[in-house]
Amino acid sequence: MRHLRLFQYIDAIVREGSVRRAAEKLYVTASALDRRLQDVEEELGTRLFERHARGMRLTAAGEIYVNYIRRHIAESQRVQSEIDRLQGMQQGRVALAVSPALAMDFIPNLVREFRQQHPGISFAISVVQHEVAIQHLVNYDVDLAVIIAPPKNPDVFDLAVVNQPLLAVMDAAHPLSGNDSLRLSDCLQYPLILPSVGLTTREILDTALQPLGRVAKIAAETNSYEIMRGLLPGTEQIGFVLSTTPYYRKNTQSIVYHPLNTREIQSVPIICAQLRNRGLSVAAAQFSQLIMQVMENIQMNNGALD
């Protein structure tokens, strides 16, 4: 499949931004790679790249051609996956882009469950903000995106959506720890540990805080939910996480979780998405089925709790 290898060469040049860096990634000489590119440009009768001192940039024709080859590469991978299916899904790879809020337990639990049934399937997981995740889908970098509140994109199709509440997290001895449900305004009496600016959960919190007309006392900001939880024990600080289980998180001896009043702060949509009209590999399709099943169970349990 020499044409597929050539497509991969050109795709590498686009991703690396230069022939030299792409050649290093591909373990070929830069001169050989540049020659292959020139051959393609001569065959097409047009330049695919503008060559600059700082690297390579796609021309308008190059944009069209790269979209074509990426669709071809993805389809070739799907066909290979169908062939592998005859061997009982003993091998394969699933590439995911996931929101930071889902990287703590939701995605690890799903991947662990899937690999117990299909140990030959490997995963490539990128933890990124939702705009980047959508771009990864569009660029054929990932098979699926599991993200919260993403921007709409006509090229992206939502496979499943479930709305989940934000939870206030605190030390078990916190003055508010005995409350079953909390108002966001109650939390403002105490120092807060907020998600970093740019994260979706932070955007939702900022939107909910504005009408309250009170300034939050920020103890820390972090893009790591593990760091946030680690800062809570022995303090009156309050953090915030997205509920990603069918039931509210189980409290521990040191940390407790409480849902926030939905009249003050909206629930957050978790979305599993794929690129529209892209055929998924067998492994990716099977994993998407697991995600949809779990999200359906979450939705059903949410309904039972209402």
UniProtKB/TrEMBL annotation:
Q: Which Gene3D superfamilies does the entry mention? A: 3.40.190.290, Winged helix-like DNA-binding domain superfamily/Winged helix DNA-binding domain
**Domain of life, source organism:** Bacteria
Family in the record: Belongs to the LysR transcriptional regulatory family.
Which organism is this protein's natural source? Acidithiobacillus caldus (strain SM-1)
- Which residue ranges does the record assign to the HTH lysR-type domain? 1-59
Its GO CC terms are: cytosol
Q: Name one GO molecular function term.
A: DNA binding
Looking up InterPro entries in the UniProt record yields: HTH-type_LysR_regulators, LysR_HTH_N, LysR_subst-bd, WH-like_DNA-bd_sf, WH_DNA-bd_sf
The organism's lineage is: Bacteria, Pseudomonadati, Pseudomonadota, Acidithiobacillia, Acidithiobacillales
What name does this protein carry? Answer: Transcriptional regulator, LysR family
The UniProt keywords, alphabetically, are: DNA-binding, Plasmid, Transcription, Transcription regulation
